[in-house]
Amino acid sequence: MSYLTVTLLLPVLCIIIIITSTAASSVSRKCGDTLATPLPYSSFTSSSVYARGYGAGYAKLNRKQGAGGWSPLDTDRYQWLQVDLGSRKQVVDIVTQGRYSSSDWTSKYRLLYSDIQRNWRPYLQDGNIWTFEGNVNSEGVARHELQHTILARYIRFIPVDWNREGRIGVRLELYGCSYCSSLYYT
């Protein structure tokens, strides 16, 4: 290439890069719908329930109904809360709180995801099964922007550690948007 060609093409290339990066960032900002809040109670299931009012369907962010969130019968590492998003979604953020006005919260957790409720895949970050930092009290909010988007219908929240003076407790929200495959079959 001649110097003249490079000189003429460089500004055009810069404009293309700016337009592309602006379009990409505006798309990612648009993928921030609340995914859990609009779901019915029946879209939430769990390994167990501590008592009436502590059911999985009460695990929505900022909710005070029932006992103010989900708590399982046993407080151990074998518990889980599952959200059925209804169809495959792009999940980009997760936000958690403890159970309303209680000493029950989850201080560390992991995520699993699947499209068919089998063959669960762990959320990985930096090539490792990732453990998220959760809450330090029942009312504060812990928000995590995912390093990579989860594409799935089912999300499982797995408590790993919790307030030892209380129980496992959680309210959560997932943020993202509908998933549209770019593959077309004929």
TrEMBL record:
InterPro entries membership: FA58C, Galactose-bd-like_sf
Secretion signal span: 1-24
Record domain F5/8 type C: where: 22-177
Which keywords are on file for this protein? Answer: Signal
Top-level taxonomic group = Eukaryota
What the record says about family reads: Belongs to the neurexin family.
Query: What protein name is recorded for this chain?
Result: Contactin-associated protein-like 2
Gene name, per UniProt, is LOC115022452
